[in-house]
User: Fold this.
Amino acid sequence: MRVIPVIDIRQGIAVHARRGDRDRYGPVQSCLAPSADPLVLLERLHAALGCQEVYVADLDALEETGDNLVLVAALVNHVGGVHLLVDAGLRSAADARRLLDIGVGRVVLASESSGGPHQIAEIGRAVGFEHVVCSLDLRQRSVVWGTAASSIQSVDAVLTSLSASGIRSVIILEMDRIGAETGVDSHFLAPLIQCHQGIEILVGGGVRDIRDLLILRDIGAAGALVGTALHRGTISREDLAVLAREACHGPAQAGSW
Assistant:
């Protein structure tokens, strides 16, 4: 199972996400880096943890107040061997291609920026399903959509629709658990992962320490998005080494770089 650090960017600096309440986000304070400079943070994440994937959210683009495209382009080329998954509020294939053209590894098609599964599938077909990850942004275990065009809020139903359309990789992001260190919602997640084994499922929200990572591994998650626990040092490089050593005891995972 992969551990994917998260960098949330607003107005050029890395911020600390808390329960998806973006009005409360302030500059990140990390034991890994001396500042909230995303470039420095990426360097330190790679050097300290050996990460090969990083999830980047452009909050200005998500909120339609601007974008951090120049900074994202700089991040792409800043540390060799690190692939970026970027959520920039994409609403069209042209938006997705713009990020892919600057070297982003995979683009994130988020439900909160989309009108429904069909729109996500259309973008995936246009740019290639191998280049996209769908993020199901949840509140109280229901999918949040960007417009009222989609009334499908059941995660199971959305996963079924996405799988049938060709989507290969999905993030289940429980926004009310982001930065809250509440633990992972294993009773909710385990049946979904078991019922949709044809899709790579990544999980975000609630991870506190190595114990939560082991829980996610054991229920079959392909990866975990982690922010707060890395910045506070409650997950270390040694923990990640333990997870890697024990990987053979967990279920086989779908998808990898």
Observations:
- Residues 121 and 165 are 6 Å apart (CA to CA).
- The radius of gyration is 17 Å.
